[in-house]
Design a protein that fits this description.
The protein is mostly helical. It is built from 24 helices and 3 strands. A 3-stranded antiparallel sheet has the order 1-3-2.
Length: 584
């Protein structure tokens, strides 16, 4: 029978040790024995390499060997451990996390597409309707951060369950709102509740998957997040002929099905590997009680308090490396909305034309007003009707970033498989292989030039009114780069700060929301597109954006050069803090 660890602080996280304080924790672990450094020795697959060059070999033989030579053993042969659950169970829960992660940004951009129609029917200005969207996007970031804090104390699954139940109520409320005030309240709180999986998705990934699979799962999770803003306009454009309540009603139905998925397959993924494991399993025995949080409440003494969880999140962003990476990520994704809005402007103009007329006029008179309006749009000086899409065509145009994201996903998967092969073939002198999380940032040297090229070309093509396929190509370059950037920085922070993976994921969600949407809404007003005198200033503004993104990449180069030293410095200054299995 497996021996239990003496204390939570002495228990090894069963992840790759990445700094000197992790090494010290590992060397005190009762189930492992230290082996001296020897770079000529091939580290067995059942050993864990340390920064010092030494390695740990398990005393007992009840450790699951997930992979062949050179890959770290991640978990014990305990069927209750989420990492040892069946592939079907883990796959179903992970699928729920993916679809929930795509929900919030999808809802924001869907509502943005419908903003003119919503403003007309609820008797408010379009600016007021779009202002609610900015508040909604900000609440997505707040909700994701709150979800991680609550998950540390109450467990993962009850937070997901109750947040999704709140998302169901608010999505139904915004679709059926009879006034703008009711719509605004439902819309803002919907952002808070739907942000749960974008915030704590990394917690679920590190709970359920071993080191071997985490990179791949993080890439899939990043894909789900990146494509979500482009799904909403597709739906909104294709359903433009219907009243705005129907697309939002469809969004509510999708939210309900996702909540039902949580109810059907949800299980608590938090697993305590210190003492009191038997107590934990006894308290978590009922799956229904796991969903609503009663079981986790009974075992709350095994997890940090709410105050500890709150402080943990803000101590995380105070880490200079994590802060620098988030600043870079925020700047890099700040151009999503300006690019997207140029494509959306034909929809806005088209809807404004359709909404023109006087209720006292006859149908024929109103139709004449609409035809005159649409004719004036096609007669904009310099406009060759290249971007004069109907709403349905504009929605179809949003398949461009989706296809680009799929291509980036395939590249990310191939990079992951290549990394695994390189790790196996170079496992001699294991410390050199495993002690450098900065390796995870290498794909950025490929993604950043593609991303910058997309910004520059997009501005040039829009300014010169080039064919829409050229605009689509440039847009695809940018989206391609953003997915690789998202996956790379998430993998890096997960590798560099394993005990803080959840908090790092939440702060990336904050950076993405602040950069891609809140800041993007500000930048959006400086770029003019179709219907406003097409392309005026686009080349200049997107050129400036590309320059800012290039300067921001200096942060990544600094982290790649000095990241290891900074991590050692931080670990020495905070020795003993937030180490061990997971929680302080």
């Amino acid at each position: 029978m497996r021996e239990k660890a003496h204390s939570a602080s002495e228990h090894l996280s069963l992840r790759t040790p990445l700094s000197t304080d992790y090494d010290q924790d590992a060397l005190r672990h009762p189930q492992w024995t230290a082996q001296p450094a020897n770079k000529g020795r091939r580290i067995p697959s059942t050993s864990i390499p340390l920064m010092s060059g030494a390695s740990l070999t398990p005393i007992h033989d009840n450790y699951r060997d997930d992979v062949d030579d050179g890959i770290i053993v991640d978990s014990l042969k305990d069927a209750k451990d989420p990492r040892n659950w069946t592939k079907v169970r883990r796959g179903l829960i992970f699928y729920i996390i993916l679809v929930v992660s795509a929900l919030p940004d999808n809802g924001v951009r869907l509502t943005a597409t419908l903003a003119p129609s919503i403003a007309r029917h609820l008797d408010v200005s379009k600016a007021a309707a779009q202002g609610v969207l900015a508040a909604n996007q900000f609440m997505i970031a707040v909700g994701g951060l709150a979800a991680v804090m609550l998950s540390r104390h109450f467990g993962r699954m009850p937070v997901l369950f109750w947040f999704m139940l709140g998302a169901v109520g608010t999505s139904v409320g915004q679709a059926g709102a009879g006034s703008f005030a009711g719509f605004a309240v439902a819309q803002v709180f919907n952002g808070f509740f739907t942000g749960v999986a974008q915030g704590n998705g990394l917690l679920f990934i590190t709970d359920m998957f071993s080191e071997r699979w985490q990179d791949l799962m993080i890439t899939l999770w990043s894909f789900s997040i990146i494509i979500s803003p482009y799904l909403g306009p597709v739906i909104g454009g294709l359903l433009d002929s219907l009243i705005w309540r129907w697309p939002l009603g469809l969004y509510a139905v999708v939210t309900i099905f996702e909540w039902l998925g949580v109810v059907i397959v949800g299980r608590e993924t938090w697993y305590y590997r210190g003492n009191d494991q038997d107590e934990q399993q006894r308290l978590l025995k009922s799956r229904s009680l796991q969903l609503i949080g009663v079981a986790q409440w009974r075992s709350r003494k095994l997890r940090p308090s709410l105050l500890q969880a709150f402080m943990r999140s803000f101590k995380t962003i105070a880490n200079p490396i994590i802060l620098m990476v988030n600043v870079y990520y925020c700047i890099t994704l700040a151009w999503i909305v300006p690019m997207s809005s140029i494509i959306l402007q034909p929809i806005f103009f088209y809807q404004d034309c359709l909404n023109r007329g006087n209720v006292e006029d006859t149908w024929d008179e109103n139709e004449a007003h609409r035809i005159e309006c649409l004719s004036s749009y096609h007669a904009v000086p310099g406009d060759k009707s290249v971007y004069s899409f109907s709403p349905e065509a504009s929605g179809a145009f949003y398949f461009t970033p989706i296809i680009a994201a799929i291509l980036a996903l395939l590249v990310g998967i191939s990079l992951h498989l290549r990394h695994v092969r390189q790790t196996r073939s170079s496992s001699r002198g294991g410390a050199d292989v495993w002690s450098s999380p900065e390796r995870k940032l290498r794909p950025l040297f490929f993604a950043q030039p593609v991303l910058i090229a997309g910004l520059v070309l997009f501005g040039i093509f829009v300014e010169a009114n080039k064919h829409y396929m050229l605009v689509a190509m440039a847009w695809g370059f940018y989206v391609f780069g953003t997915l690789i950037v998202t996956a790379s920085v998430a993998n890096y922070l997960n590798k560099a700060f394993p005990p803080l993976a959840g908090e790092c994921g939440a702060w990336l969600s904050v950076s993405r929301s602040v950069g891609a949407f809140v800041l993007g809404f500000v930048v959006e007003g400086t770029v003019k597109g179709p219907g406003d005198g097409q392309g005026q200033g686009a080349e200049r503004m997107f050129g400036v954006m590309a320059g800012i993104s290039g300067v921001a990449f200096v942060i990544i180069m600094f982290v790649m050069v000095f990241g290891g030293r900074l991590r050692e410095m931080v670990s020495r200054n905070s020795a003993g803090e937030m180490t061990g299995n997971e929680d302080p």
